[in-house]
Design a protein that fits this description.
The complex is a heterodimer of chains A (362) and B (275). Chain A is built from ten helices and twelve strands. By secondary structure, chain A is of the alpha+beta class. Chain A has a domain of 194 residues: Glutamine Phosphoribosylpyrophosphate, subunit 1, domain 1 (4-Layer Sandwich), CATH 3.60.20.10. Chain A is flat and about 85 Å long. In chain B, a hairpin with a 2-residue loop joins strand 3 and strand 4. Chain B is globular, with a radius of gyration of 20 Å. The termini of chain B are far apart. The longest helix of chain B is centred in the middle third of the chain and has 22 residues. In chain B, helix 4 packs across helix 5, helix 6 runs antiparallel to helix 7 and helix 7 packs across helix 8. With 275 residues, chain B is α+β, with helices and mostly antiparallel strands. The chains are: A alpha+beta (362), B alpha+beta (275). At the A-B interface, helix 8, helix 9 and helix 10 of A face helix 6 and helix 7 of B. Chain B: It comes from Haplochromis burtoni. Chain B: GO terms for molecular function: threonine-type endopeptidase activity. Chain B: Belongs to the peptidase T1B family.
Chain lengths: 362, 275
């Protein structure tokens, strides 16, 4: 068709013809290819539209985003309007060192953090969804509850995280129905890690922190929680003593796991993920220890997210906080950090005027 | 004249000789920074060599990428009683620790300090050159150079070699007639004045701590503690920072060296509850 000639459309089915015709350089029009290459030749009815099928959809999803093999390369021309999106400049910061055709620009800007203490697990995250410089959503939710005693923090591609959280929630519910008890956090982390493993090496990017409280249906659960509460009221124990005490009630208690789509699965006491995580880590390192009260933990988590949003461009807007205890998770109201920023500005201005007054009075 | 010889003053015609291809006997390794390139191009690169082109050819896709990482943590902030400068002391060459006791603060004179992050060679060379220029300024003009002017000299040196692969992130701290001064100078030629800076790959960890604990009206001891904490927490999380914290306090009558403490001991002190 004339329109196809003008816009240099080259048939997606050209690769079937490479055996017959030699590979052509870009822009060179070969009318004979069009006539015989089109699945619907020109003499067919005008109402028969050619619906293009992007080539990458024919491939298995595992191949998506991988380096194309040599045969496919010659078929995909950069003038093909349907695949132009895959030839984005590879100077994007997230392109791997080999030129993998990215379907869209990806950005992983966030700050999420979670830590364990005597009162359970405290999880906090900012609410900014960014897409390479555009704030796509200033009020997104990065902490997704999975079930009553398990909460997941998401970092990476929002779409991937949301989908995998739902898949994980479904699997955990099925497990609960089949076995009559909740799967432990460790099991959930292992399940997620194994589900993500087939996608290793693709552009899937999920970095999830699972925070949960294990135990609950056992008889000894009540005793263990009481024992835990009484421990907290005592003087701060050294960590090794607490370890041995916790080993005795190994089955229940707070748990924190970090699962990443590249296969990492780590258990720990404190995690922070995202572009704002270095800023949050130093605040958390300063203040987090086992014997924190709930209020102290809340204020440290809030301060850490605030400092990260203060310095990191890809984190900001509001802060969400979840507290997971033996009774399940509780959500604190979303708080706008803009207020905190203005309060701090006022404080600094106040200090400055104070100082100037003092200087003048000297 | 003899005084010209001693102070290295070069007449314009002599300078021109050095730049023209014919004048190969006088390959410049000392540019005259008082003209700032207004009359002739004063970059000390031998003719025929093109560092920026070479770097561009390296950094394209598929080429060998030369990563310029500033593997260190340094921080400096202004407060009521002056300027606090704190640095770590780890020098790394890729994955190898070249030194655990490197000196990353150069004492330009008794009232000017410069920190170093990035390539150790670049930092040391250019900051020593800066020290030389500051001394010459003092001798020629009979008054001390201001912090703004010193940082401007360094920044112009960096601009002369922009794109040619220098790697330096430095903070010039001092006390002059305008009071305490703090400037951040970069290998790109960035020159920023501010209340607080932190450079190096551990800088984000230090920013969190110092932003959180900073108050304008801190006492001197609190400021020392904040500087120590910033470096200690950064070395705890960053692989390329470590060693000891070297801390200086810039006061009105000059700088004093406050302490040199091992970061592992500091971390043990700060995180007592976790160990």
């Amino acid at each position: 068709m004339a329109l196809q000639d003008i816009c240099n459309f080259q048939s997606v089915f050209e690769d079937r013809l490479t055996t017959e015709y030699p590979a052509v350089p870009h822009g060179k029009k070969i009318p004979s290819n069009y006539v015989s290459g089109l699945p619907f030749s020109n003499n067919k009815s005008l109402f028969h539209f050619y619906i293009p099928v992007a080539e990458y959809l024919d491939e298995s999803p595992i191949q998506f985003g991988q380096i194309s093999t040599v045969q496919n390369c010659s078929a995909v021309s950069s003038e093909d309007p349907f695949l132009t999106s895959s030839s984005l400049p590879t100077c994007l910061p997230f392109a791997s060192s080999q030129s993998v055709p990215l379907p869209f620009p990806m950005a992983h800007g966030t700050t999420t953090l979670a830590f364990m203490f005597q009162g359970g697990v405290m999880a906090a995250a900012d609410t900014r969804s960014s897409c390479s410089g555009l704030v796509a959503c200033p009020a997104s939710q990065k902490i997704l509850p999975i079930h009553s005693h398990l909460v997941g923090l998401t970092s990476g591609t929002s779409a991937d995280c949301a989908l995998w959280k739902r898949i994980l929630a479904r699997e955990l519910r099925l497990y609960q129905l089949r076995h009559g008890r909740r799967l432990s956090t460790s099991g959930a982390a292992k399940l997620l890690s194994h589900m993500l493993h087939p996608f290793k090496g693709t552009e899937l990017c999920v970095a999830a922190t699972l925070c949960g409280w294990d135990g609950g249906e056992q008889k000894n659960f009540v005793d263990s929680t009481n024992a835990k509460v009484s421990l907290a009221k005592d003087e701060r124990f050294s960590f090794s003593q607490q370890c041995s005490i916790r080993k005795k009630m190994n089955l229940s208690g707070p748990r924190l796991f970090y699962v990443c789509s590249d296969g990492t699965r780590l258990r720990g006491m404190l995690f922070s993920v995202g572009s704002g995580s270095p800023y949050a880590y130093s605040i958390l390192d300063q203040g987090v220890h086992w014997g924190l009260t709930v209020d102290e933990a809340k204020s440290i988590a809030r301060e850490a997210v605030y400092r990260a949003t203060y310095r990191d461009a890809y984190s900001g807007n509001c802060v969400d906080m979840y507290h997971i205890t033996s009774k399940g998770w509780t959500r604190r109201n979303r708080e706008d950090l803009k207020e905190e920023y203005y309060r701090e500005k006022e404080r600094r201005k106040h200090e400055k005027t104070e100082r100037r007054d003092v200087a003048f009075s000297d | 004249m003899a005084i010209f010889d001693v102070s290295g003053y070069k007449k314009y015609c002599e300078l021109r000789e050095q730049i023209l291809p014919a004048g190969l006997t006088h390959l410049v390794d000392r540019t005259n920074h008082y003209n700032f390139g207004t009359k002739t191009q004063e970059f000390a690169v031998p003719p025929g060599v093109d560092p920026s082109g070479f770097l561009k050819s390296c950094n394209h896709d598929g080429g060998v990428c030369i990563e310029m990482n500033h593997g260190t943590t340094t921080l400096a902030f202004k407060f009521k009683h002056g300027v606090i400068v704190a640095v770590d002391s780890r020098a790394s060459a890729g994955n190898y620790l070249a030194s655990k006791d490197a000196n990353k603060v150069i004492e330009i004179n008794s009232y000017l300090l410069g920190t170093m992050s990035g390539s150790a060679a670049d930092c040391q060379h250019w900051e020593r050159l800066l020290a030389k220029e500051c001394r010459l300024y003092r001798l020629r003009n009979n008054h001390r150079i201001s912090v703004a002017a010193a940082s401007k000299l360094l920044s112009n040196m960096m601009l002369g070699y922009r794109g040619m692969g220098l790697s330096m992130g430095s903070m010039i701290c001092g006390w002059d007639k305008q009071g305490p001064g703090l400037y951040y100078v970069d290998d790109n030629g960035t020159r920023l004045s501010g209340r607080m800076f932190s450079t190096g790959c551990g800088n984000s960890y230090a920013y969190g701590v110092v932003d959180s604990g900073y108050r304008e009206d801190m006492t001197v001891e609190e400021a020392y503690e904040l500087g120590r904490r910033g470096i200690a927490h950064a070395t705890h999380r960053d692989a390329y920072s470590g060693g000891v914290v070297n801390m200086y306090h810039m006061q009105e009558d000059g700088w004093i060296k406050v302490c040199k403490e091992d970061v592992s001991e500091l971390i043990h002190r700060y995180r007592k509850g976790m160990f």
